[in-house]
Amino acid sequence: MVQKVERGTKTWEQALRSLMNLCARSEKCSADALRLMKGWGVADVDAQMVLQRLVSECFIDDSRYAAAFVREKINLSGWGVYKITAALRRKGIDSTTISTALAECGGVDMSERLTELLQRKIRTTKAKNSADMRAKLLRYAAGQGYDFTTARNVVERLIKSDEQCEIFDF
């Protein structure tokens, strides 16, 4: 006999099946799974049981999720270390896992990546003078999660090279 369930709620079996399908298509972390199950009305005890099963069957692996997240955010979104770390912490990933995932992508030169981002930003940014441009670029770099020292060095290099080429439209 099929168990009748309220609309918008799922049994633990339905939640397990749905999460297996989702996890087969894209990486999910434990916090994502718990958030989804809470939205589906799955009881906390059942949600923990489903999560344990997903982890034991390797559908969910927070370290694998963190590594994929770091790769995506560095390569596609251009995020810096601080923004990536904050986002993973919000997802409930522990700091050891975050450090390991960031270390795995250690081959990426963050100043080179920031240089590419800021060169694109310069083309679309209007500034009164070079000091105004410098401030806008530093704020943008900070918002993207880059440390101040790296941002300052890259911005100074770009401002000097652009002043020599007279690219700015002040």
Strand and helix layout:
Layout: H1 12-25, H2 30-39, H3 44-56, H4 62-77, H5 81-90, H6 95-104, H7 110-124, H8 130-143, H9 148-165
What helical percentage do the residues reach? over 70%
Distance between the termini: 74 Å
- By DSSP, the count of extended strands is 0
| Global shape | elongated
**Amount of beta strand:** under 5%
**What is the averaged pLDDT score?**
88
Rg, nearest Å = 22 Å
* Helical segment count: 9
User: What class do helices, strands and sheet pairing give?
Assistant: mainly alpha
How would you characterize the overall build of this protein?
The chain has 170 residues and is mostly helical. It has three domains: 12-56; 62-104, Arc Repressor Mutant, subunit A; 110-165. It is 71% helix and 0% strand. It has helices at 12-25, 30-39, 44-56, 62-77, 81-90, 95-104, 110-124, 130-143, 148-165. The mean pLDDT is 88.
Summarize the structure.
This protein has 170 residues and is mainly α.
Which features does this protein show?
170 residues; elongated; mainly alpha; 9 helices; Arc Repressor Mutant, subunit A
